[in-house]
Amino acid sequence: GNSVTQMEGPVTLSEEAFLTINCTYTATGYPSLFWYVQYPGEGLQLLLKATKADDKGSNKGFEATYRKETTSFHLEKGSVQVSDSAVYFCALLTGGGADGLTFGKGTHLIIQP
Amino acid sequence: EAGVAQSPRYKIIEKRQSVAFWCNPISGHATLYWYQQILGQGPKLLIQFQNNGVVDDSQLPKDRFSAERLKGVDSTLKIQPAKLEDSAVYLCASSLGRGVPYEQYFGPGTRLTVT
User: Fold this and answer.
1) B41 to chain A: which residues are within 8 Å by CB?
2) Could you tell me if A28 and A14 are in contact, meaning their C-beta atoms sit under 8 angstroms apart?
3) Region at A97 (left for phi over 0; alpha for psi -120 to 50; beta for the rest)
4) N or C: which end of chain B has fewer CB within 10 A?
5) pLDDT at position B72, please?
């Protein structure tokens, strides 16, 4: 079956540090990949997505590249801010009639001033 | 544009009791999803509707969970009887259509505690 593995948290960084959150996946076919973010007290929001190999998704300074050869979709940001503190979820969608997202367990990111 | 609405936001019940959650999707969204998020885990799909028909309910524990989407708009998810392991946040999401081009928008969730 489909699965997503992402690095355990919490991840604690200082403001302006470089961020990487690792995500790898197992899926049948050719999935689309997503990063969702959940800010404190808010619902899940789509952060970025990539629908085919070598695509790069980007939003709000975050980037992730769909690497089919390593089955990975790592999230990166060059300089994090306190406002980036949230829980980040990597997810995939295989389609073919099944439209439910398969999520990883989430990574809690804490940015200290 | 109003987002996905869910109620109640919090619910505490004893095991073997029943409970119902309500979801109102974004206006015009044909596809509606219910996810279960247990503490420390990512959301897991329980059921997906397209208008008022079920697309996927393969992970719904049908002996105790039921869901309906009458008239293809609002939806209700019911648990009867509840077990301790049902303690979780129940998320409703909606999208304009099915598949990758259509973003899933999530509601704030209902946090259920079963004691």
Assistant:
1) 105-106
2) no
3) left
4) N
5) 86
**Interface residue ranges in chain A relative to chain B, Cβ cutoff 8 Å:** 4, 32, 42-46, 49, 51, 89, 91, 93, 95, 97-106
Note the pLDDT tens digit of each residue in A82-100.
999 999 999 999 876 668 8
Could you count the other beta carbons within 10 Å of the beta carbon of residue A60? 12
In which band, very low, low, confident or very high, does the pLDDT at B101 lie, cut at 50, 70 and 90?
confident
Q: Is residue A53 within 8 Å of residue A66, measured between CB atoms?
A: yes
Count of CB contacts below 8 A, A vs B? 57
DSSP label at residue A101: P
Task: Tell me if B106 and A103 make a contact (CB, 8 A cut-off).
Answer: no
A43·B109 Cβ contact <8 A: yes
| B75-84: burial string, b at 16+ Cβ within 10 Å, e else | bebebeebee
